[in-house]
Design a protein that fits this description.
single chain
């Protein structure tokens, strides 16, 4: 019986061992997840960063964004520049900087790109120096007691300097600064290459110089389009105060926290019922109108500064394009002048051919095998040739004089 029981246990273990396919399926799922994930960098207010590799669902949950908003940061819209405001985040897509900025952190896509590294260095260098802003998200010790009749940040936050920008605007400012500096550098390099090439083309019109100028003009057109996109996006925000107000993510975050704290206190403290009747309209109006009382002047000044910088960059590109157009006009004038000289030379050759044709006409007439009394006169050959040449010369002078009289030939 012991042997039989031993065999039964062996058969049971053999029956349990075969299903080994679960690890392979889990590996396939992991591969699919890894295939859909992308590299992001997470940076907090203090400038501390961390590289994470995650998929869209993680970003959607962390930034409280709808899934369609991540398409703005996808490859389809990589050539467009846009700044979109959402309830709890700002979506920034400026040239090579594609990021999601909340009131507490920054999520930067593809942080290892060569163009993005200066932006990351500037964030790490300046965020710790700027410290907490005047509109940072309130903590538990920053709320005033409800007995004071106010639900606003405590004295330390309320008395902070007004010129301090919230976290999202600090990131936006540095992003605009890096993008504008990159575009200015590109324009400076284009100017450094364009002006000597155009001067060389004006001196010597050759295929090599024309090809060089053509490539410069195509680069200029692409660069102008990139500058124009960023400039138009900033101009669109400046034209609408409501869009600028929606960019105040930290302010909206504070208002939501205050509203939640007020609702919780009203439900927990019964003795506030009488006070709520008298002060609810006042405090409620203060909370609801905070967005309107605090105007968008600081953001407007920030955007106007970079709008003027981009406008100056655009003017530089337009001046280079105007110089290219002037050089093209000058080259076309040179080519037209040479073409006119060739036409004049062709006209002179045509007049000469006409005069020679007249002489050839007389030679052909006398070359016919027809009896003529002039053939019997001695020494008439020289006289006949001289007369025909003289007639041809007279025809040449008359036609040439007619061409000059009608200004068909230059002086």
């Amino acid at each position: 019986m012991g042997k039989l029981s031993f065999r039964k246990k062996a058969t049971v273990t053999q029956a349990v061992l075969p299903p080994v396919e679960a690890p392979s399926t889990s590996k396939a799922v992991m591969k699919k997840k890894a295939a859909g994930s992308r590299l992001w960098m997470k940076m907090n207010r203090a400038g501390q960063s961390e590289l994470i590799e995650c998929d869209k669902s993680f970003i959607i949950k962390r930034a409280s964004l709808p899934s369609r908003d991540l398409r703005i940061l996808g490859p389809i819209f990589s050539q467009s520049s846009s700044i979109h405001a959402r309830e709890k985040a700002i979506i920034v897509n400026l040239e090579f900087i594609r990021a999601i900025v909340t009131a507490e952190e920054l999520l930067l896509l593809d942080p290892l790109r060569q163009e993005v590294l200066p932006f990351i260095d500037q964030l790490r260098r300046e965020l710790p120096l700027r410290g907490p802003t005047g509109q940072q998200p309130p903590q538990d010790n920053q709320l005033v007691s409800p007995s004071d009749g106010q639900w606003f940040p405590g004295p330390e936050t309320a008395e902070s300097p007004q010129d301090e920008l919230p976290f999202e605007f600090q990131v936006l400012e540095m992003a605009l600064e890096v993008v504008c500096s990159f575009l200015d550098t590109s324009v400076a390099e284009l100017e450094r290459d364009a002006y000597p090439a155009l001067d060389e083309l004006a001196k010597n019109v050759s295929t090599k110089n024309l090809e060089h100028v053509r490539s410069l003009k195509s680069n200029l057109t692409r660069l102008l389009a990139r500058v124009q996109k960023v400039r138009d996006e900033i101009e669109h925000l400046l034209d609408d105060n409501e869009d600028m107000a929606q960019l105040y993510v930290t302010r909206k975050w504070i208002q939501n926290q205050q509203a939640e704290a007020m609702a919780a206190s009203n439900s927990m403290i019964p003795y506030l019922s009488q006070l709520r009747r008298t002060g609810s309209t006042k405090s409620g109006s203060l909370v609801s109108n905070t967005l309107h009382n605090q105007d968008v002047e600081d953001l407007e000044m920030l955007l106007e500064a970079y709008f003027m910088q981009l406008d100056g960059t655009r003017n530089k590109i337009l001046s280079v394009r105007e110089y290219i157009d002037d050089t093209e006009d000058y080259v076309n004038i040179q080519l037209d002048n040479k073409r006119n000289k060739l036409i004049q030379l062709q006209l002179v050759l045509t007049i000469t051919s006409f005069a020679v044709a007249v002489d050839t006409l007389f030679a052909g007439i006398f070359g016919m095998n027809i009896p003529c009394t002039l053939y019997n006169i001695n020494g008439i050959f020289g006289e006949a040739v001289g007369i025909m040449t003289l007639i041809s010369l007279v025809c040449y002078i008359l036609v040439l004089g007619y061409a000059r009289w009608n200004k068909l030939l230059g002086s």
